[in-house]
Amino acid sequence: MPTNSLYCKHSRPKDTFLKVLINLAAGITVVVLVGILGYILVNGVPYITWQFISTPYSEMNPDQKGILPMIINTLYIVVITLLIAVPIGISSAIYLTQYAKQGRLVRSIRFTTEVLSGIPSIIFGLFGYTVFCILFRLQVSILAGCLTMAICILPTIVRTTEESLLSVPTSYKEGALALGAGKLRVILGIVLPCAMPGVLTAVILAVGRIVGESAALLFTSGIGYSMPRGFFRQIMTSGRTLTLHLYQTAREASTPDAMNIAFGTAAVLLILVFLLNCLTKVVTKAVKKG
Questions:
Q1: pLDDT tens-digit profile of 21-70?
Q2: What b/e string do you get for 128-161 counting C-beta neighbours within 10 Å, with b at 16 or more?
Q3: What are the TM regions of this chain, as residue ranges (predicted)?
Q4: What domain range is 11 assigned to?
Q5: How far is residue 128's CA from residue 144's CA, in Å, rounded to a whole number?
Q6: Residue 158: DSSP 8-state
Q7: pTM confidence score
């Protein structure tokens, strides 16, 4: 078998330069990412203690600077928002790709969805505050923040899931239909499981958007830091997430240990996002196998 391939015979200096340039850009991206994560973890991990993550927070008491309420509020917002947005987003994507007649209306919906995904989150926050907090009389609460974030992440879930469904070969669906399976069974049993990696990507992107959001939640969920006193009572009260707590503590950099608390909160936030992504992958694999 010849050792020299056709690519090696026709390799040109421009190709080599382009390859080096691509590798250099990828290397710079990795170095910058590792540098940011390393800087946050090096400065934040030393301040992460059991007391830091398991005690409440108080602006008046210097001995109570824990982040347990913020961790609970973050989990509330992530879970409730996903429970609202993921079924709606996946159902919308299935309808647009499998049921709707491909025409001007579907193209308009897709264009509108892409426009919504590029709108600044502070506009969603203003909309959520006006509609959910004032018009629906939910006040500044975790539930209002969840509804606002559901609107924020819906475009991402719909468009990513839609592209994943469209990438499934049509021969899979045609073969199942030819064997006598119903359309709904084909979609739920063949098309959707094949598109599950794309759905997983949509969920991971949504989790990252929720956890990292601050502007929209500042208007809707507020900056309360009280410990939960029951599920339904808590979601109807103001509650800051880890991101909002990081923002608030970073603003108070003149107070003692404020930056240490901010870096510790940032490190916990990174670890929480990593764990949520791992959990999402495990659940998706279990659903796919089932």
A1: 999 999 999 999 999 999 999 999 998 888 888 888 887 877 788 899 99
A2: bbebbbeeeebebbbbbbbbbbbbbbbbbbbbbb
A3: 20-42, 67-90, 111-132, 186-211, 261-279
A4: 6-46
A5: 7
A6: H
A7: 0.85
